Each structure stands twice: as structure tokens, then as C-alpha cells.
Fold each of these.
Amino acid sequence: MTSGVVSITICALWVDCTSIMPAENDTSDCILVVGVSRPKIAAAFLTIALLSLFLTFHILYDSAVYSLHTTTVIGTMDETVNDRDETQQQIDQSPVMISNTAHFSLTNRYLPQAIIIGVRKCGTRALLEMLFLHPQIQKAAGEVHFFDRDENYEKGLEWYRRKMPYSSKGQLTIEKSPSYFVTPEVPERIRAMNASVKLLLIVREPVTRAISDYTQLRTHVATASTAITVEGSPRPPQSSRSFEELVIRADGSINESYRPIAISLYHNYMHRWLEVFSREQILVVNGDQLIEDPVPQLRKIENFLGIEPKIGRHNFYFNHTKGFYCLRNETSEKCLRESKGRRHPRVSPIVVTKLRKFFSIHNQRFFELINEDLNWPE
Ligand SMILES: *[C@@H]1O[C@H](CO)[C@@H](O)[C@H](O)[C@H]1NC(C)=O
Ligand SMILES: *[C@@H]1O[C@H](CO)[C@@H](O)[C@H](O)[C@H]1NC(C)=O
Ligand SMILES: *[C@@H]1O[C@H](CO)[C@@H](O)[C@H](O)[C@H]1NC(C)=O
Ligand SMILES: *[C@@H]1O[C@H](CO)[C@@H](O)[C@H](O)[C@H]1NC(C)=O
């Protein structure tokens, strides 16, 4: 585009000088001749030519310096990076020179090499934060929801890549979106991105998970209905229905279509993943053990991801006030919030026993699929 400007200027200069010059004159002296005969016009053309040349190189130089700058300096300044996404995109897409510059850069955004696909309420956030203690791991901020939401998936892989953090060669980029696990289209879509991607699936004992799910849903409904009441149109709060009422049908059977129960039927979703990916590509993490004693679980994960074992006991301490692990690296500390601070309701032991019995056969199916027994209570 910029070189177009330059050639147009040269052209104009050319046309002008042939029109004033005698035909027998050597055209290579064109500028000199113009300089003598019409000094003002010549000066104007020269200025334009020089200006456009200057602008061309200025733009190229700027973008080269910019891409070096962003890739070396910005890594940690996430806000700034997001603000500059558009500029970064233009640079990424310009075909010449700049792409060569990118090879020198220390950091860049890469598509994830590993994805935490779920399960919701099983500790996906805790798992990601724990892995982030490792110097070779970079994590995407928030949940990207690229593969499960059509409106995001339509934006394409380049959009997805720009949601990823900066990382250097040798580092792994990890993303987590718990609803990937239960969304039918997702396994195929992930395979289309990278057929050898590594997948992490964290699961908890299904009854515990269902209660935790119910607790979160209830909190959300409660918050929503409060908001409605404030607006002046009170509604009968659905949230008042207990876990037991929602889970057990009138005839005493378990309501399998109640979402917190449905999602805990892991085998219903797992088989889809195993139709698309090999078993070796999916690591099943025991979420109950990860919370109780994180280091041995993390050792397995480091091994699976092919990174050096670096996360150790020194990265964790137990806060007795919170009753939960806190994470620390060399520079900072972060405490995980168990169930985001929500207390689980007391569920009738009879219902828990009933649910455990109900899940027992489903758990067996799941264990057969993954070829691993997680020893959940029956
Ligand atoms: C695909 O995933 C594998 C496993 O994480 C990784 O080694 C490889 O670099 C990825 N390929 C691309 C193109 O990102
Ligand atoms: C089962 O759960 C679904 C979803 O929450 C609900 O629509 C349905 O009414 C429940 N069925 C019974 C019999 O409670
Ligand atoms: C533990 O958590 C409590 C509550 O958030 C906090 O006030 C306290 O400083 C923490 N203790 C340690 C040792 O981090
Ligand atoms: C330590 O953790 C903080 C926040 O989790 C992160 O910003 C920082 O880069 C980490 N430092 C190191 C040396 O890994």
C-alpha cells in the first residue's frame, strides 16, 4: 500500500518532466532539468517524494519496533496487551518483513497445547491456578468458551489465539472452559485445531459435585430473584426448592434430567471424547485428591504434559481460618476459595445414600471407559 504511494509520486514526476522537456534530452537528467525550468513545482514533487519515502520507512520501522516491544516487554501487562489487540492483529496479518521480525521475538501468543475441558464444579479453577505455579505454564485469563459457543467459534482460530497469553518457546499455554466437556460439538472442533492436543479432565465424586452444582445454581437464582424484587415485580423464588425436592421424583426415583445430576453422569459425555481422541491424550485428574493433597496429583500432570517436576510442597500452605490451601510462588500468594465461599446445604443422608447407589452403576461405566477405578464410595 505504501509502496503504491511512492510509485504514484514517481509517476507524476515522470509525466510532468517529459511534458516540459525537449524530447532529445536524456531522461535521466529529468529532475535536474525540472529543477532549472520550474523550481517550485520540482521542489514540491521532491518534497512529496521524500515525504512518502520517509513515511513508508517510518511505518515499517514503527511496526517492527512495536512488535519487538510488545513481544519482549508486555508479557505481564495484560490490560495493555488487550488494549493493543487490534494493532497487534494488523501487524500479524501484514505479509512482508514483519513476520520475519516475529521470529526474533521472545514471546508470542500460541494456541493452547493443553486444555482443561471440565468438569464444572470439580476444581477446574484450582487446577489451573496450581499449574500456573509452574514456570513453564501460561494460562488464559478467564474462560474463553471458544469451542462450545457458536458465536465465538465462528470468529475463528485467530480470534481464539488472540485470547491466549503471551508465552515463550518451551512454555505451554493452557485454557480452561468447563462446559467443553458436556457440549457435543466440542471434541471434533478441538481435534480440528490440533489432533494431538493434551486434554485434562478433572472429576469429583458425582454426588458431591451435584450438590456443589445445586448450591451454585441456587445462589444464582437467589441473586437474580433479589434483583427482580428490587425492580418492583416480586416473583415466587424458585430457589426455595431443596436439593432433595429437585432430585427425587414423586415416585421416589432419581430425576436424571435435573442438570446437576445429568452432568455428574460422566460416562454420557466421556464416550464422545474417546470417539475422537485416544485415551492417552486425556488425563483424568481426581479432583477430590487434588484438593486434599495436591502435590502427587500435580506430579502426574507435569509428567503428562512433559514438563519438569517443579511444583512442590513449598508452593502450598494450609490456611486454617479458610480451611483451604493457599498457593505461593516466589513473588506472590493466592488463596483458593472453596466453592467460592459458599457453604453446601446439609443434604439428607438418606438422599445421599440413595444417590450413591444410583450413581454406582454409572460410575462403573465411566471407570470402564477410562480404564481406571477412582474408588468412589457406593
Ligand atoms: C499440538 O499439541 C501438541 C501437544 O501439546 C503440541 O506438541 C503441538 O505443538 C501442538 N501443535 C500446534 C500446531 O500447536
Ligand atoms: C426433572 O428435572 C427437570 C429439570 O430440572 C424438570 O423440568 C422436571 O420437572 C423434573 N421432573 C420431575 C418429575 O420432578
Ligand atoms: C488466612 O486467611 C485469613 C482469612 O482470609 C486471613 O485473614 C489470614 O491472614 C490468612 N492466614 C495466613 C497465614 O495466610
Ligand atoms: C507468581 O504468581 C503471580 C500471580 O499468580 C504471577 O503474576 C507471577 O508472574 C508469578 N511469579 C513467578 C516468578 O512465577
Note: Strands lie at 107-109, 114-118, 137-139, 166-168, 172-176, 198-203, 282-286, 316-319, 324-328, 333-335.
Amino acid sequence: MSKFAEPMTRLIDELKKLPGIGSKTAQRLAFHILRSSDDDAEALAGAVRDVKANLRLCSVCNNITDVDPCVYCTNPTRNQKLVCVVAITCCTDRFPLCTEWDRNNCESEIF
Ligand SMILES: [Zn+2]
């Protein structure tokens, strides 16, 4: 028998599936969600649903996007012959800010 009510146990079990989240952290997050306002809890649930419903891979470059082709592939100033390979997809949002290759700022994320 779990020491928590079934809905709390279910939330903890789902949170434990996230990378880097163990039992204690999952419990802390679950209690945080339980104490949060209905609006904040619904915003979190909605954000999770929205990510799953509206994000896909760009058909041109495989970037995670909500529009296909993605903003990078539809940018008319983009050099279509230049390929930038990143190790972590979440880093691609930094590239529009770069005006030129800056190895000192990017080398930990770029291979
Ligand atoms: Zn793309």
C-alpha cells in the first residue's frame, strides 16, 4: 500500500519517468504541484499537452518546430549550402543571435 493517495502516487510515478528525476524529487515536485494554484497546475498540464500535440520535426532539417519547414529553413537570408550540426537540439535557438562563428562561446555545444 502506497503512503500517498492514488492520484498523488500516479503523479509521482509519472514525474519519476522524467530524466534526472528520482523518487524524492518527484515527491517534491508533486507536492509543489498540489500546493500550486489551479491556474498554474492547468498551465503546466496544458504546456505538456501542447508540446505533444503541436511540435514535430522539420521536414528539411529535423529541427523541433511548430511550423514546417521551421523558421531557420524559411529564413531567406540562410545559406542553404551551409550545415550546422548541433549535439543538443535545445541549443539551436542560440544560432540566430550569432553573427559569425564564435568558437569561444559555442564550442561546448557544437561538434
Ligand atoms: Zn528546418
Note: The pocket of zinc ion is lined by residues 58, 60-61, 63, 69-70, 72-73 (CB under 6 Å).
Amino acid sequence: MKEPVIFDLSRKGRRGHRPASPDVPSKPLEEYIPAEFLRREHADLPEVPESEVVRHFIRLSNMNHHVDKDMYPLGSCTMKYNPKINDETSGLTGFTALHPLQPESTVQGALRLMHELAAQLGEIAGMAAVTLQPAAGAHGELTGILTIRKYHESRGSRRTKLLVVDSAHGTNPASAALVGYDTVTVKSNAEGRTDIDDLRSKLDESVAALMLTNPNTLGLFEKDIATIERLVHDNGSLLYMDGANMNALMGITRPGDMGFDIVHYNLHKTFSAPHGGGGPGSGPVGVCEKLVPFLPVPVVERHDDNGTTRYTLSADRPSSIGRMMNFHGNFSVMVRAYTYICMLGAEGIRRVSENAIINANYLLGKLTGRYDLPYPGPVMHEFCLSGDRQKKQHNVKTLDIAKRLLDLGFHAPTIYFPLIVSEALMIEPTETETRETLDRFASAMLQIADEAEQDPEMVKNAPQNTPVKRLDEAQASRKLNISCPAC
Ligand SMILES: Cc1ncc(COP(=O)(O)O)c(C=O)c1O
């Protein structure tokens, strides 16, 4: 990698920024901070002019793949284009300068935004109420499962198991375990959907809920959802939907209408907040009427008195599972999602899902025949190919195909997930890609299929055109070295 670390660009005395001299009397630091907490030596910080800092980070960002550079078909992650207006609204001083401890009367706009966003999300998924507190999808799962536990406790029942389908995201069983449930895996059938007989055989009075992703991680709609709903509810269990794939449903159908009791949303996927790199995210949770009393506090309430509207925060919910986050959740992500929903309107929201589905099926049509498709479509917003043929016939693994895509200018799809597909390549084009971009991506995939047959070494030695070549990924996660000379 050619780019030096910022410490190597440092030259003594170079400055990027000079703070203005204070226009108030200054006092020694010791008068503010106890001496034992003060640094004794100067921090070894890089000294670099602003122009070089900007260029350094632009060069680094150019080396990286990102969604503003080209298509990022990372299945299940919905790496779609995030409209820049979202950043503008979330950067408005009226929002960024707020403090969560300000009196309610001074944050009426923020409370209104939260109240309206919760209502919009509730409408989209057909849920009676929504909490915006959880900070990610997995955190939403945790919130939802705590709600499930509280619901059963409130009925004096102690159920110990959660059912999770084998195609589910790994966070589902992890969240269940965190709450203390035993997870029982339900098998997928030959079509890639929930195996109804297996589900039936695992439902008994110890089952608190079934967690289901719809459409599932193969991009397939669970078309037996009505039967699943009846079986689960007849058993006295709840039905949880992992709504990370909501971008395939919006404006077309609603989890609440399918009988789901709880759903989490990923604002940082479906509702266009940038993600990757650790956040911030937001994983609101919607619930049906009977679960509303268990939602986290505080809740934003709207009061209409004598022609004026006022919003307050209420913690007066004796059955609540409690707080899931400091203050109110990741507010800037909420502003982005609110902007996105208001900009699109009901019609636009539906077109998002329609286009996500059309794009996935268009791309699938171009790739079928050259890659195996273990579970046939038509699909919803994503699909899962298998690199089995390339591996068996040419010893080219899915990992090699993913690396070669980087050479051709694309981020790789999600690979080796879901676990029920061997050599999985899970592709989610998203609705924001044009037909021309989909065609370019399809050409790259077809070129790799040709290379695997005619020049397998080319694929196995990829990537060659990237700033770093093939990394030892196991070593990278076991021996993290973030390259700071001062460390
Ligand atoms: C289907 C599904 N469920 C849950 C999650 C967890 O969401 P998060 O990464 O925001 O915790 C993901 C994330 O990739 C997902 O794809």
C-alpha cells in the first residue's frame, strides 16, 4: 500500500488549524481538572497542514470501495445509495446542537420528528406502536425478545425456547441466547422456505416465539406465512419478524397484516442511513396492540389541547422492559430516515420495493445458467447463487470469485452466508442501481465465470489491481495491527 500513515506525513511545526485566542480570562488547567488526570507529556500527535490531511483521507477513500464509488451488492446489507439531502437535514444546527437533557419545551421539533417517524414506520409495517431506541438490528432483536419474555411472564408462563429458521442471520440465535432462551433450529425445505412439518414438530408449550425473516435471506418470500402464523399462534407463541429485508415489502404488504407480533427495522439499510464501519445505526421495533405496554421507556406522547399540540416524554409504563439506550437512540439516523420517507411519500416508498425486486430478478436472469442457483426464484430483493460448480470443476472457490470482483471495480457480494448454501454468493443489487450498472456487474460476473474455466489461476490470484493484494484474513482478525507507530 503506497499511502503512508498520517504520522509519517507529520513535520514538526506544521499546523492545520490555529484556534482563536480566547476572549475571556484564561485559568491554568489544574484549576479545572485534578492534576492526577492531566497529561504530563505532550501527546505525540501528527503535525500536518489541512491541505495534506484532506488529500491523505481522499486518497485513502479512493483506495477503498464505497457505495458512492460503485455498486456494492452485499446481500442482506442493502448497501444502497443514501441521498445527500439526508445528511443536510441531519446536520441542521437545530438538530445537532440539541442536548438530550434540555427541557421538553425546547425540543418540541425533535420530539415531533420522533413521534411522526414512529407513526410512519408503524404504518409501513402495520404495527400498533414503534420504539426508536435500539441502536442496530441486533439491538432491535434483543429489545423484541425481551418484550416476548415480558409478555409471557405477564401471563404467568415461563417458556424457555425460541425457534429460529436455519437460514436466519446469526444475530437471531445470538440475541435469543443473550436473553437466556434455548434456540431450536427449524429446517428449511427443498424450496429454501420454512419446512412446515419441521416447524410443527418443534412447536410445544415451551416455545415462546418463532423468529422468521421475510423475505428470508435467500431472497424468498415465505409464501406459507398464513399457515405459519396459525401454527405459532395456536401454540400460544409469538411471531417475530426480522425486518432487515423490509425493502422488499414496503407499500406492497405489511408484516402486521401477515400476523407478525413484533418486527425490527434496520433504518441503516432500508431507510438509507449510511452504514458499515460500525455505525451509528438504528433498529426500531414495532409491536402489535397487546405488546404496546411492554415497549421501552421513555415514550414520546402527543397531546392536543385547545388547538395546540405538545409532545412529552413519558416513562409512566409500569410493564415496560425498561430503557434500551441512553437517552433516546441514535437521533441523527432518525432524521435521515424521516427525511427519506417524507421525500419519497407513500407512492415512492412502494416504488423502492418494486424496483429492488425488479433489479434482483433482472440480474438473476443474467447470471442464471453460469452459476448454480440452489433455490429457484422468482426472488424478492436479493438472491443467493452457489459457486459449487466453479469449485468442483475448476478449483475456484467463492472467495476467489469475490476477490476477482474487486479487481473489476465492484465490492463483493456477501459470501458463505446463508449457511444452507454451499459456496454461497448472496447478491443484493438494491433499487438505486441503474440498468447500465446492473449490466456492468453482470458482465463482470460472467467474465469471472469464463476465467474460472479458461484461466483459473487468474481468479485464484486475485486481486491484483487493488492497493493491497490478498490478505490473510484469519491473521487479520486474530492479530489486529492498526499501524500506529505510537502504539
Ligand atoms: C437479516 C438480518 N438480520 C439482522 C441483522 C442485524 O442487523 P445489525 O447489523 O444492524 O445489527 C442483519 C445485518 O446484516 C441482517 O442482514
Note: The chain has three domains: 6-61, 87-343, 353-476.
